[in-house]
Amino acid sequence: MPPIYADESPGRKLKFPKQAFRDFLERHHIPLELFADRLGFSIPHVRRLWNGSTLKTKHSTLLKIAQIVNELAQIRKAEVPEEFQIIAAPQAISIPRSPMNFMEASRLMAGFMANSATPKTYWIAAYHLNNAYRTIEGLGERKSHIQQVRIRAMTAKTIARLEPFLPDRFAKDFERNLEKIRELFSDRPADVKIEYWKRLPQFHGSMFGEHMTWGGWKVDRRGRLTIDDSENFYVSGVDGDTFEFGRLKTLFQHGDTMEEEWK
């Protein structure tokens, strides 16, 4: 059973995790009477939860039970069972003024992922993937908010052709970071997918749900192609320029796609 999302529909009926409930109370010697008193429910009601005669309960009730479990776990310095972990409702996220620098864009996307109420696909228009790896790793347990990772990258042929204009060890760094991302999802390897652009992509960036950050390229003093750190933009598919978001989303997901192995 997944964790409990705090902002889910209150009236929705969910399966009650009877065994996790019983195990928690027994392991920490918590009387039904004490739990009922804290919950504000009658003892017979809590006993029905205990013996499994209540198969499903409203989200609002389950959330309240989970809050009591979390409080008692904190008092006893115990671990909260996975079935009663609560994922907080999304908080207001401050949008930096565009254009923003690369780290601001990365923190912004990490905030959207950490506060998402439902799992979504994390799209990455890859450059070196190092920042994407750090962003995912920084989510910790909230990595479960990522339903799937879809990476759009340059083919080995394109990288070989552009090699004189790319940073040193570009291909090796890309492969190393790709492997590190796959390790983060070692329990569900099929959820990390890679697709290829036939040529240099029009932009780099990431997309999660209706939120996207993207930026362009620049040439450094050595004549090497790199990201433009100061020119990163946020586009929203909800309350922003929906036409621009739709255009970029189409390029992100379908533009110039070429499926082949990384060789």
Report on this model:
With 263 residues, this protein is an alpha/beta fold. The chain has 2 domains: 4-87, 434 Repressor (Amino-terminal Domain), CATH 1.10.260; 102-258, 2-Layer Sandwich (Endonuclease, Chain A), CATH 3.30.870. Helix content is 38%, strand content 22%. It is built from 9 helices and 11 strands. The protein has helices at 18-27, 32-39, 43-51, 59-75, 102-114, 130-138, 156-162, 170-184, 242-254, and strands at 4-5, 13-15, 56-58, 86-87, 120-125, 146-154, 192-197, 204-208, 211-219, 225-236, 257-258. The strands form 3 sheets. It has a 7-stranded mixed sheet, with helices on both faces. A two-stranded parallel sheet has the order 1-4. Helix 2 (32-39) packs across helix 3 (43-51), helix 5 packs parallel to helix 6 (130-138) and helix 6 packs parallel to helix 8. The chain is elongated.
Write the layout of secondary structure elements.
Blueprint: E1 4-5, E2 13-15, H1 18-27, H2 32-39, H3 43-51, E3 56-58, H4 59-75, E4 86-87, H5 102-114, E5 120-125, H6 130-138, E6 146-154, H7 156-162, H8 170-184, E7 192-197, E8 204-208, E9 211-219, E10 225-236, H9 242-254, E11 257-258
Parallel strand pairs: 1-4, 5-6, 6-7
Antiparallel strand pairs: 2-3, 5-8, 7-11, 8-9, 9-10
